[in-house]
Amino acid sequence: MATQTAVELDVLDYPAHLSSISTSVLQNSLGRSLDDSDPSVSSPPRSTTDVEAACLNINKSRACLIIIQLSGINFVSSFSNGLLSIGLPTITKAINIPPNLLLWPTSVFYLTMGSSLLIAGSVADVIGPRKVYLTGTLLTAAMILASGFAKDAITFIMLRAVQGIANAMVVPTAVSIIASNVEEGTVRNIGFASIFLSETLGFAIGMVLGGVLVSGPGYEVGYYAGGATGLLLFIVGIWGLPKDSELASFKSASRRLATEIDWVGAGIASASIAILSYVLVMLSADTAHITTPSNIALLTLSLLLLPVFAIWMHFQMKRGKPALIPNNLWTNLPFTSVCLMILLCDAVLNCMELFGSLFFQEVQLLSALQAAIRILPQVVVGATLSLLAGALVNKMPVMTSIMVSSILAAGSPLLMAVIDPSWNYWIMAFWAQLLAPLSVGLLFAVGTLVVSEALPRKTQALAGAVFNTFARVGSSVGLCLTSVISMSVTQRSSYQHKESPEALMSGYRAIFWALFAWMIVACIIGAFGLRKLGKVGVKRD
């Protein structure tokens, strides 16, 4: 008898009348083959057992190499983000980024990535995750390398936009490749955790080395090194990554792309995310932009597209057609809860990294390198927790672990909200850095497993895309909202010089209180939605 999780994570059920759909659609949705004599099907049907046996016939040594390669490109992409975060003032001066575009190099990456994840995941489930992953890897490396040569703001921002799309191709397909080729158990759990671990390490090392490079040879060296490393990983991926389980002809792949993907649903969801992100970026630059008719119209449109998406999902399921994210999936409480929690917790962690760095530089008047060193405890704790979570997630009670880590993580913004800037680092700021990654470090490992188990094996790229879309939207929305809060509070403060450390601290303090409130909401969601969830990531016989 197969070993099950303590509380079964229901796999998405599709209605019985889907029998009218082509065999390939049913195979993609349900992960099982049906008898069919349709001559248009290019390959004979295979049982799920046969497909899984072929996919999972990989020893542990090769599985570890696959995980290292998949994590490597995510590390490189995050390294470039950390380099940009710490080196933005220098980059702004070097390529003359105007004040109205100051946030765009950072924001456009999350905007394009968040709006491309669902489409990239859907396409990967049809044509194969390896093809999409390698394409994304090559694009990521090329865009990072080219960023080092950019001489003007528009070129740099456009390269960052394409890098966001490339990263959207990499992240969900990495989840799919691990899910399809590494059998359930500790190694697979560590693989999922490593995807987050590489992001955390890459960002932090990018900040630290960025501080060194900005003060020495120049930020361009970081982009050259990152791009070259990405190209090397691309070559290693061609040689080392397992082939996709089903190879189809160009004609067959084109037909499947046309018939097996909910393009309308993907377009609606992506448009809503992109428009909302754009409006929030505009507001973060100047809150007065909310009064402009164009931004009001765009914000209204982005919100209206949400119920339109739900209606379209119902319509697709009713007529037996592929639905991107069927509405009944949201009735799976663990799935919905981890998605909402990662949206909030990832927003908090990203904002803690950014505004923690600004606190050290703009309020305590430390150098970029000194600020990066003070954020390093986040990296150590995040990396350690990710590895432990991957190795032990199938042995620990999920509900208790997530709740304890989330409550402790809520202490991070709380400490920064009440801190006295004149205090020594070790009194309070150090402990805030230690606590910051506790929730996300565990939630990424658990959440990826929950989402992976909630969706069929043949839609694992989409599973990774859904989960990471919530994380990226959380980052984008969180950064924009906190920027608005900071500017509003600072401008209304009683300090005459709005650029003074005291005035800036009033805005940062308001941000930290907001982040504390978001973590409390995340704790409430977890307490309700995960209360019946036992163990996940357990190996099935």
Automatic annotation (TrEMBL):
This protein's GO CC annotations: membrane
A Pfam family that the UniProt record links to this protein: MFS_1
Entry keywords, A to Z: Membrane, Transmembrane, Transmembrane helix
Gene3D superfamilies referenced in this protein's UniProt entry, alphabetically: MFS general substrate transporter like domains (1.20.1250.20), Multidrug resistance protein D (1.20.1720.10)
Domain of life: Eukaryota
PANTHER family: MAJOR FACILITATOR SUPERFAMILY MULTIDRUG TRANSPORTER MFSC (PTHR42718), TRANSPORTER, PUTATIVE-RELATED (PTHR42718:SF27)
Subcellular location per the Swiss-Prot or TrEMBL entry: Membrane
Transmembrane segments: 66-89, 101-120, 132-150, 156-178, 190-215, 221-242, 263-284, 296-315, 335-360, 372-393, 400-419, 425-450, 462-490, 510-530
Keyword Aminoacyl-tRNA synthetase on entry: no
Protein name, as recorded: Major facilitator superfamily, MFS transporter superfamily
GO molecular function ontology, one term from the record: transmembrane transporter activity
Domain Major facilitator superfamily (MFS) profile: 66-534
Membrane topology: Multi-pass membrane protein
